[in-house]
Amino acid sequence: MSAPAPLLAAEGDVLVIAHRGASAERPEHTLAAYEMAIDQGVDYIEPDLVATKDLVLVARHDNELSDTTDVASREEFEDRRRDKTVDGQRVAGWFVEDFTLAELRTLRTKERIPLVRPANARFDGLYQVPTLEDIVKLVRAKEAETGRRIGLYPELKHPNFLLQEAGIDMVDLLLRELRRLGVSEADPVFIQSFEVGVLQRLDRRSDFKLVQLVKPEDGPADEPAMRYAEMIAPSGLAEIAKYADVLGAHIGLILGADGAPTSLVADAKATGLEVHAWTLRPENAFLPAPLRGAGGDAAHGNAAALKDMLVRAGVAGILTDAPDLFE
């Protein structure tokens, strides 16, 4: 993504990564959310990628559509409703891989968690589902406008499921699309996944920076015998460092219940891995009890204090729904 002088966070600073855009203020994974995040000065925007039936990469948190679009109210698509087992979970609904891009474009997005983000629901029905191409074009336009670099931080969602269920190879699809759009390894790009095999394949086929995502529970969908808890032990981190550059860790793995750092950042750095933390959100619903403010789940608490704890813990990047916390 060519632009004037590169102005990403200086070495030693924490990268600010807009998780699904400025999703605390606009419905997630819309061009409006991404643009607001860029205007708030983020280093990277983070689209979750799934694929349509005609092999177009689009941004949705999941391949099931009813939580974030109006598909359930569209009579013309009632017959597309399916039950599928996605990464071991039975899911009922409408799935991106069963729609062409043209069909998907007729849908309109909506706020995924309206009880927590009621103000975002004001924008329901305004936006389409964006493609990766739409996002890259937005980034380039904003780079030209602002004179600074804006990175991409895509996550490949359910790659093993999509390969087995629909024959969609997300590695081939992503690398081909990035090449077509003129995005190279020289550009500020991180590619992330909770799965292992997809990152190992990307490591063999490209020089993009790669992020192994981990969380407190479960394990990679493509490696049923693995648990994330074992992967973040020192020996497991050494294995991750063979194919990835960054460990993308849930905040609960980086900070203990008392807010003090665990050993994870130090252990990861010892193997050559940086650590990016996910996800810093402003609402009480997502904050530890000591940092919650007055009001219910939708009220904002002291997310700034949590940000400071993560910085002190030594993380190299923070994924956030509220980039304005860093202004």
Automatic annotation (TrEMBL):
Q: Does the keyword Transmembrane apply?
A: no
**Key word Nuclease present:** no
Report the residue ranges that make up the GP-PDE domain in this protein: 14-327
> What is catalysed by this protein?
a sn-glycero-3-phosphodiester + H2O = an alcohol + sn-glycerol 3-phosphate + H(+)
Q: What is its EC number?
A: 3.1.4.46
Enzyme class per UniProt: hydrolase
Q: Which UniProt keywords apply?
A: Glycerol metabolism, Hydrolase, Signal
Q: What protein family is recorded?
A: Belongs to the glycerophosphoryl diester phosphodiesterase family.
What protein is this chain from?
glycerophosphodiester phosphodiesterase
Recall the taxonomic lineage recorded for the source organism: Bacteria, Pseudomonadati, Pseudomonadota, Alphaproteobacteria, Sphingomonadales
